[in-house]
Predict the structure.
Amino acid sequence: MNTSSPHRTHIDIAQMARGIRRRVLEHTVRNNGGYVCQACSSAEIFASLYGAILRLSPLDMPLAPWKFPGVPGNSNAQYKTGAAFHGEKLPEFDRFYLSPSQYSLVMYAALIEAGRMDEHALEEFNRDGGILEMIGAEHSPGMEIMTGSLGQGISQVAGIAMARKRKGESGRNVLFMSDGEFQIGQTWEAIQAIVFHRLHNILIFVDINGHQCDGRVEQVMNIEPLHARLEGFGMRVFRIDGHDIDKLIDCGTRIGGDKPAIVLCDTDPCRGMEFLRSRAPKYHYVRFSSEQERREFEKKLSLFNNIK
Amino acid sequence: MEIASRVHAKNLVEWAKNHPEALVLSADLTSSTEIDLFRETYPDRFLSMGIAEQNMLSFAGGLAREGFLPLVHTFAVFIYRRAFDQIAMSVAYPNLPVKMFGFLPGITTPGGATHQAIEDIAVMRSLPNMTVLETGDATDVKTVLDAAASIEGPVYVRMLRGEIPKLFGNDNPLIFGKARVISRGGEITLFSSGICTEEALRATEALRLRGVSISHLHITTLKPFNDPLVLDAIEKARCGVITMENHTIIGGLGSAVAEMMTEHGIGKKLVRIGLRDTFAHGASLPYLKKEYGFDAMALIRSIESLLGASFRISEDELAEIRLSEISGSVNAEAL
C-alpha cells in the first residue's frame, strides 16, 4: 500500500530515527541551544511517517533549500510554500502537516533522512534570509500551512480535509500534534467539527512527551484522561508507545473507517540521550549555561557519531 | 426612497447559482445573518460550524487553500474579536480568498457592548493583505458580493441586514476602490460610510436649502484607501473636511482620511464624527446616534462650527426631509 515512499524495513526506520537525533543534537551544539528533546521524543514518529506511513509523490533528487521568497501577497509573484519537499500534490497522495512548528528542526532532519532534502541543508538552519527557520513557517521545507500559533493546525487541516473530501480525493491528511495543544480551546472546537462533519480522511499523531515550556504538562495544566476525552468526542483513539516503530506503522493504516482516527504516542523526551535527564523538568528548549556545558554536549555528540 | 427587506438573503441565493465554489459557513446565527434561505436552497454548500469561531476561521483558510470560496457569516464582533489570531495566521498571512461578512456594525444593535463592533475597521485595516469594505444601503449589500469575490485575498465586509434603505440606484453599484459622489460643492468636503450616509443626507439636504456648498462622498472601500476622487475632494475643500462613521474615530474612516491628508501635505481642518473613544451600550439606534453624537444634528453642528455660522435647523425640519434615490449620473458628472 505504501507505493510511493521508498520501502523501508524496520531496521532502516530505526536508522532514520537515529539520524534525526544525531542531526538535531549536532545543530543544538552548533547553535548554542535548540529543541533537542522534541527530537528525542518524536524521532520514531517522524521516521515511521516519512519511511513507511505517508504516501507522497517521489522526488527525482533531494531538494536544496532556497532563499526566503518573501511573504505571501498579491505583489509577490515568486512566493511559494515549502510543500515542494513533499513532492507534487495529487488527489490520491497523502498530505502531511506539522502543527507545532517548534519541531521544525526535527522535520528538517527527517526530510534529509527521507532523501527529500539535501544533506547539507541544515547548514542553513536559523540563518538570516533563509527558509530553515527555527520555528518554521509555511515557506519552510515540508511546511505548507501557517502553524506554530498552536491549535490552528488542526482546524486548517480539517478545512483541507473537508475540501478534499468534497472533491473526491482519496489521499489522506496526516497531522502531527503536540500534547500541549490539548490545553487549547480551538483544538477541541476542531475535534468536534472533525467528528460532526465526518472527516474520516484525517489521521492525527500526537507526541505525548509530557513536557511543555513551563515544565511537566500535568503540573502546568492537566490534559488527562486524553484517551477517554477524545473517545467521548467521537474519535477512534489508539494509545501506543511512540518509540515502537511496528506499532506506529500499524496505526498508520488505521484510517478510513467510520470515525476519524487519532494516535496518542507516549514518548520519552530523553530517549536516546540519557545525559539530558539531569535537565528535568526543563525540556522544552535546551540552552547552554556555560562554555563547559556546551563542550560536554559536543563530547556526547562525538560518542553519538561513533556509535553510528 | 425605497426600503428593501432581507436583501442579502435573496441576493446570496441568486449570486451563488453562478459560483459553485462558494460555501457558506455559519456560527449558529443562520437567520440572524440572513443565510437561512441559502441553507434551504443549497443544504450541501452550507456548513454549520457551531459557536466555535476560532475553528471556523482556520477551517475556512483550509477550504480556501483547496480552491473553495468560503463566505463566513456571523456577527462582526465574533469574527475580529473572537478569532483575530486565526484570521491573522490562517487567513491573512497566506492571503487566502476567505470572505468574512460581519453583521451588526457599530451601534446598529441594541445588544450592547458585547455585540457592537466599534473598532473592527481599525483592527482589520491594520492586517496586511486584508481588504475592508462597508455597506451603507441595499444596493451596497446587493453588489458587495461581486466586489468581494473579485479581490484576490481575504475581505472583511461590514454588512447590513433586515430593513435597509436603498440610497443608490441600480445604475450606481458598489465598486471596489471607488467612492460614490452624492453632491459637489466647494466649502465643505464630507466623507460618510455605512449607515451614516443616510443620516448625513438629511443634514446636507437642510444645509443645501440654506446655500451651503458641500461635496459629499459615500465611502465603501476602507482599505486600500487610495481613491483619487477622495484626494481630489479633500484638495478642493475650502473650509474643512468632515468624516462621519459608525465606528470609533480611532483607526477607521477618519484616521484613513487623516493619513491621506498628511501624506499629501494637505493642511486643512478635519472633523471626525463617530464614537469618541468610548464603548456604547444597549439601546435603540436613534437614541444611540444622538447620545453618542453622530446623528444629523451633530453633523450640522460640526459644519456650523467650521463655517462660523448658525443655520437654525430644527429636529422637526430634519424629520420631514424625504430622500430620493441617487443615480450613477452624479458620479459620471464628477469625473
User: Anything to note?
Assistant: The two ends of chain B are 25 Å apart (CA to CA). Chain B has a mean pLDDT of 96. The domain at 3-165 of chain B is CATH 3.40.50.970 (Rossmann fold). The CA atoms of residues 192 and 307 of chain B lie 19 Å apart.
